[in-house]
Amino acid sequence: MGTLSDEEAAEVQAFVDREQFTLEFVTTVGEFGDEQRIWARDGALVRLSRDRGQWWCELSHRGWPDWFDIDVVAGALGSKSYEPADRVSDVIDKFTDDRLLEPLRAFREMSR
Predict the structure, then answer these.
(1) In angstroms, rounded to a whole number, what is the distance separating the alpha carbons of residues 80 and 89?
(2) Residue-wise pLDDT tens digits, 55-70
(3) CB atoms within 10 A of CB 78
(4) What gap in Å lies between CA 79 and CA 89, rounded to an integer?
(5) Helix, strand, coil share (%) of the chain residues, nearest 5
(6) Model pTM?
(7) Among 19, 70, 97, 110, which one has the highest count of C-beta atoms within 10 angstroms of its own C-beta?
């Protein structure tokens, strides 16, 4: 699972704000600024998590039990973008299709 810098996490947050995602969930845990934020649009979910000073970006679909690291999703869907916000931009529209779950699970297993 790939980590994001503070700047990359801010770029992902700027993307979801700009693309009119709705902030659905925010939680802050502990004294170190650990947090989790989830945005939604058209069934697609974007989650930014910060733990011990490191950020992660994951995608899911409303109703799915799984979350997928943006690097796994980008690889599975053939994104050639390098920056995490660009990767989210490249693939997020495909997350309106519920049939994507099993192919992503299979790709994640092959990538391990």
Answers:
(1) 12
(2) 999 999 999 999 999 9
(3) 8
(4) 10
(5) 45, 30, 25
(6) 0.92
(7) 70
